[in-house]
Structures are given as C-alpha cells and as structure tokens.
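README: folding subset

This subset contains proteins for which both the sequence and a predicted structure token string are available. Records are stored as plain text. Below is the entry for RNA binding protein (174 residues), shown exactly as it appears on disk.
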Amino acid sequence: MAEAAAPWKQQVLQRGASLYVGDLDPEVTETDLRAAFYHVGPISSLRLCRCCLTGKSLCYSYVNFYSHAQASRALGLLNHTNLKGKPMRIMWCQRDPFSRKTGFANLFVKNLDFSISSSCLESIFSMYGTILSCKVAEENGRSKGFGFVQFDSQDSALAAQTALHDTMLGGKKL
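--- output ---
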C-alpha cells in the first residue's frame, strides 16, 4: 500500500544559494541579519562568525537560502545597503580555495576620487563582467582613495583594466 503524500514538502538547499556578508558593524546580531534578509525568502541557515576566545563578532557572516534565485535576489537588493550604519558587502560564497587565495581576476583600483562609493565603483566595473566582490577601502566611514574589484573570470578583469585604465572618474585619472 502506498503512503499518502505529506501535506508539506521538505525544502532542499540548492547548491549556489550561499552568501558571504562582510563589513558588518561589530554590534550586528543574528537577529539583525535575519530581519535584514527575511523578506527576500526563507533562510535555510545563518551564521554570524565570532572569535572563539572572546565571542565577539568577526564582522562577517554567511546566509544560506533554499534556492539560488532567492540568494541572487538578496545579493541584488541588499548589497551595499546599510545595517546599523555600515554598508554590507555581500558576495557569493567562494568555496574554491584556489580562486580565493590566488588573487585570480582581482583588480586594485587606485587614485579614486573620495566621493566614489563601493556601489558606484561596482556599477562602473560591472559593464565588463560578473563581479564577485567590490569594495572601496574606508577609514572611519571615509574613502581612502582606492578599492578592489574581483571578477568571476580573468578575461573580464583584463577587459575592465584595458577599458578603464587612465580614464577620468570623479575628476581623477584611474
């Protein structure tokens, strides 16, 4: 005799549904993160990374969704938005240690005008390929005049470098 179908289906976590969330304010809690991400879709799991000795936040977390589409939506809607006064830097979770450690497809962008934000830099460089991470270095909430852009491929990084080298942005030559 066949069993009756359950009234609910267990959701299965899809591959590629994990996000890294960095540059968090030290006071951000798991509750704050859930509140920021819940409207995108159901969260499979969330982990705010803490120092094993002190229990203090390491200012980054991982948020896992059940589907790639939900994670992609969260990335698009929430990247560079403020949480407790600091913009979150959200990117796809990098499980490949080679691409994380080699600097594969990374660009160092110097001589940035101090008015250029991470989201502005990302919008300019995204014309050349898929960006995994983009950040303008800051100190006390102010730009330090340089940033980093990581693409998903070396070809995209080279295309951006070739196209944007020596171009004017905010009154300064890159």
